[in-house]
Amino acid sequence: MQIRPKVLVTRRAPGRAIDILEQLFEVDLWDENRAMPRDRLLDQVRKVDGLYSMLTDVIDTELFEAGPSLRVVSQMAVGVDNVDLAAATRLGIPVGHTPDVLNETTADTIFGLLLASVRRIGEGAAYVKAGRWGPWQPDLLLGGDLHHTTLGIVGMGRIGSAIARRARGFDVRVLYSNRRSDPEAERELGAHHRTLEDLLQESDHVVVMAPLNAGTYHLIDEAALRLMKPTATLVNGSRGGLVDLVALERALREGWIARAALDVTEPEPIPADHSLLMLENCLIIPHLGSASVATRKAMAELAAENLIKGLEGRRMTACANPEVYE
Ligand code: DGY
Predict the structure, then answer these.
(1) Which atom of ligand 1 is found nearest the CA of 291?
(2) Domain 6-100+293-325 shares a fold with domain 103-284
């Protein structure tokens, strides 16, 4: 009888992904409704050939040493900042991820977060739930406008471009900051390239979508926030580490900027008693960017496909360290 490869799945994924894996491999599934504890992960990775991971798992040299037979990692997320890609590449381990299938859903969420923040929708909903709604008032919860403003997108990748397309429908002028200018974004989206400093100064609203790495950690710090307009909105739709929350809290309390909306925080989850949660001008949701039924299924299935291809020795559909194939 042929021995089936062993796979560790660190969290139940939506859709048919796990069923598909179970048809092909011997699957060890962490089936609790919480991230797999580190000691269990290090223990259970010992004898597996493949790892189907989540963004909450730290995949580093300690883990690779704990799992000497590990040949393939496949993560159900586009962001792989939790994975030591250089170490994986050195060991010849391809790391799968799930780009593209989540672009439009994430852009919907982050654009919605921007709109909700600018128009104070979260505050309005909390106001009604608190039983404070009285007769109509001419000056109740007045916010800013999104239409006919300037939106700065920090990190114009695939999701940033999808946000820019939505912004055009609101007659919003789009600026972007990337290391290099992107002629396609300029031609197709009418977006204008700026340095980060110029973008922060010129934009009415700023959306952060750059990936987290050593060069982008706390990209939005006190100095960056002080460049923004006092009427500006800051939205983080990428990873919590991009924004220094201590500086952000001061910015919101002292009026350096008007409001912020975060889909991601550092740490994550943000503690329930964190002082940022007391601020009415800060809207925080629990990392929901790609959280539609269809998109999470598509991510789970793409991650399964990457794992299968990796274990069969084929090139993954979406590999975060393609240099491993060179
Ligand atoms: C990702 O995929 O990296 C998101 O943060 C979750 O969809």
Answers:
(1) 7
(2) yes
pTM of the predicted protein model: 0.97
Distance CA 65, CA 45 (A): 10
DSSP 98-157: --STTHHHHHHHHHHHHHHHHTTHHHHHHHHHTT---S--TTTT-----TTSEEEEES-S
Which residue, judged by its Cα, is nearest atom 3 of ligand 1? 79
What are the residue numbers of the active site?
Answer: 239, 268, 287
Q: Whose CA is nearest to atom 6 of ligand 1?
A: 77
Q: Is 227 in the pocket of ligand 1 (CB under 6 A)?
A: no
Site to substitute for ligand 1 among 110, 238, 290, most atoms within 8 A of C-beta: 290
* 282 bridge partner residues: 260
User: Domain limits of the chain?
Assistant: 6-100+293-325, 103-284
The answer, yes or no, to whether any atom of ligand 1 lies below 6 A from the CB of 177, is no
Closest CA to 324 of 68, 90, 64, 97: 90
Pairing outcome for strands 259-262 and 282-284: parallel
Q: Is the CB of 77 under 6 A from ligand 1?
A: yes
**Domain 103-284, CATH number (from 3.30.465.10, 3.40.50.720, 3.30.390.50, 3.40.920.10):** 3.40.50.720
User: pLDDT tens digits, the chain, 326 residues: what are they?
Assistant: 678 999 999 999 999 999 999 999 999 999 999 999 999 999 999 999 999 999 999 999 999 999 999 999 999 999 999 999 999 999 999 999 999 999 999 999 999 999 999 999 999 999 999 999 999 999 999 999 999 999 999 999 999 999 999 999 999 999 999 988 889 889 999 999 999 999 999 999 999 999 999 999 999 999 999 999 999 999 999 999 999 999 999 999 999 999 999 999 999 999 999 999 999 999 999 999 999 999 999 999 999 999 999 999 999 999 999 999 99
Q: What does CATH list as the number for 6-100+293-325?
A: 3.40.50.720
Q: Given the CA of residue 98, which atom of ligand 1 is nearest to it?
A: 2
Taking the centre of ligand 1 as the mean of its atom positions, its distance from the CA of residue 77, in whole angstroms, is 4
